[in-house]
Write a structure and sequence with these properties.
The chain is α+β, with helices and mostly antiparallel strands and about 120 residues long. Helices cover about 50% and strands about 15% of the residues. The protein has one domain: Winged helix-like DNA-binding domain superfamily/Winged helix DNA-binding domain (Arc Repressor Mutant, subunit A), CATH 1.10.10.10.
């Protein structure tokens, strides 16, 4: 098995908010939960599918076929994303619809942003 790494060229880490100021344990726990949720390809695809879905909202029934996963597996991944604060859920009749939390992904990007460009 080969390990792929992301190319890191001209990276100036010292200006990133992550290393500019020491992070407290609660913030570190919250960020780790969110980044761990993003560490699964199915969950990344779910975020993309939900965001691109008509109206920016999708139910499990809209997501199982494109992912090729069972409904319980998709529901598990959605629960992880919800607990990480990346999606919200709303019951509409018998279906639960999921929507991206506005600004959640942007907030994670800011933590890692290299402001020196």
């Amino acid at each position: 098995m080969s390990v792929r790494t992301l190319p890191l060229t001209d990276v100036t880490v010292c200006s990133a908010p992550l290393v500019r100021d020491p992070m407290g344990p609660d913030r570190a726990t919250d960020l780790a939960r969110a980044f761990k949720a993003l560490g699964d390809p199915a969950r990344l695809r779910l975020l993309s599918l939900i965001g691109a879905h008509h109206g920016g909202s999708a139910c499990v029934c809209d997501l199982t076929e494109p992912l090729g996963l069972s409904q319980p597996t998709v529901s598990h991944h959605l629960r992880v994303l919800r607990e990480a604060g990346l999606v919200t859920s709303e019951r509409r009749g018998t279906w639960v619809h999921y929507t991206l939390v506005p600004g959640a992904l942007g907030a994670l990007a800011v933590v890692l942003a290299d402001e020196a460009g």
